[in-house]
Amino acid sequence: MRQSLAERPLTLLAALRAHWPEYLMETAGLGLFMIAACMFTVLLEHPESALTQWIEDATLRRYLLGVAMAATFLGIVYSPWGKRSGAHLNPAVTLTYLTLGKIRRWDAFFYVVSQFIGGLLGVAAADALVGVPLRHAAVNYAVTTPGPQGPVTAFIAEFLISMLMMTAVLTTSNSRRLSRFTPLCAAFLIAVYIAFEAPLSGMSMNPARTLGSAAGAREWTALWVYFTAPPLAMLTAGILYRFRTGAQRIVCAKLHHHNHQRCIFRCKYGELFND
Question: Which has the closest alpha carbon to 20: 86, 96, 90, 114?
């Protein structure tokens, strides 16, 4: 595996010069994810959509949306860009790896900025491509808002699903036997969460994803839930995992590392296979 193992700190300009391709890949990755989220939501929820009329059961449509978004996620992670950037696509994931010492400060800063830009641009692109159907009340830019139980229940739900997701990613990605299956594990959880948890919070786990839809719809309901629960939950998962295993057992910040793309993180992936 080609890996960058340099430990010296990067300045802002040095990080930009060295790693700007990865930053753009994060922007494109979440942008494509948001375009897919908007388009699949139109197909499965707009009242004039043939699929909506054919599949009257809203629960079944939500299951199909979960499968579609899980497949979209896998396509991004397994793409050359996803293999290279690590396909965080989520500020909460990046910040967790920052606290675990696997990504340098300026790289984390630009990853987070890139992810927010990607979420906003993705929804804007979907609006340009789809237009009026995306603005329909049944679709509403695929916003994530609390369900009928309210924002407190949404916060708890977002916290639990985000914590489980980060725990699963850390457990599989740092296992010699399971590391290559990390994207599949994450995609499975995405599908399950959309199918079963979405009625509680809209299923976000991602502040950048929520902001992209919220900005498009001008819908700011309980935005605090999605800016606090996922980061707090994933940071907690990281702390607990490090407590159980030790920081030295966390090998890298990529979701998919079984490839030959360069790695800009503080990477020890090769050590998984050298013990």
Answer: 114
Coil/strand/helix, residue 88:
coil
Q: Does residue 3 contact residue 271 with C-beta atoms inside 8 Å?
A: no
Residues 6+ apart with CB under 8 A from 194: 62, 63, 65, 66, 69, 70, 203
Q: Summarize the confidence of residues 5-30 as an average pLDDT.
A: 87
Task: Please give the pLDDT value at position 6.
Answer: 46
Other CB atoms within a 10 A radius of the CB of residue 11 amount to 9
d(CA 147, CA 225): 12
Structure tokens that stand for 87 in this block: 């396909």
Residue 85 Rama label (left phi>0; alpha psi -120 to 50; beta): alpha
Q: Measured in Å, how far apart are the chain's first and last C-alpha atoms?
A: 16
Class of domain 12-273: mainly alpha
Is the whole model's pTM more than 0.90, yes or no? yes
Question: Band of the pLDDT at 266, cuts 50, 70, 90?
Answer: very high
pLDDT band of 273, cuts 50, 70, 90? low
